């Protein structure tokens, strides 16, 4: 039996590649912040800003991180993604005075003491607020990310969304762990 070097080498290369690649991790053991970054991207894709929003004609959708950035490189895979015809841009260490330049604001745990001030400043604009601060949605934030049983879940504050004239797709609402506030009458 003759075996060609051309058939053996690709087979060996594939076997070596498979041997050195890590096995895929189960979803429940994925690192927390890459999962949260993916959630934020999907919230952006399924959110609807008011038609007169200042960025409606702009080609960027800006995600601002308020506080020390816990994401590290985890936001790199979502930066530059297309979101409804706009390019997702990430700005880090954004101060309260610059929130008006953001469509999405992620408030880090380091800013828990200033949470009321941040939410008050964001309420003047059509800004989707997201955080993993415990009780964020109950405190007036729009989407609170919660890690429970090694899974990232989320709570949604319907009243906060409504008061900012923002909407989330019904599919996102159905996936929420809990909905705070009341749904609008059909």
Please provide a written account of the structure.
The structure is a single chain. The chain has 186 residues and is an alpha/beta fold. It has one domain (30-180): 3-Layer(aba) Sandwich (Rossmann fold). Helices cover 27% and strands 23% of the residues. The chain is built from five helices and ten strands, in the order H-H-E-E-E-E-E-H-E-E-E-H-E-H-E. The strands form two sheets. The protein has an eight-stranded mixed beta sheet with strand order 3-4-2-5-6-7-8-10, sandwiched between helices. The relative contact order is 0.14.
Gist of the model:
The protein contains five helices and ten strands. The protein is an alpha/beta fold.
Topology of this protein?
Layout: H1 5-20, H2 32-45, E1 47-48, E2 60-66, E3 82-83, E4 86-91, E5 104-107, H3 115-122, E6 128-131, E7 143-148, E8 151-157, H4 158-163, E9 167-168, H5 170-175, E10 178-180
Parallel strand pairs: 2-4, 2-5, 5-6, 6-7, 8-10
Antiparallel strand pairs: 1-9, 3-4, 7-8
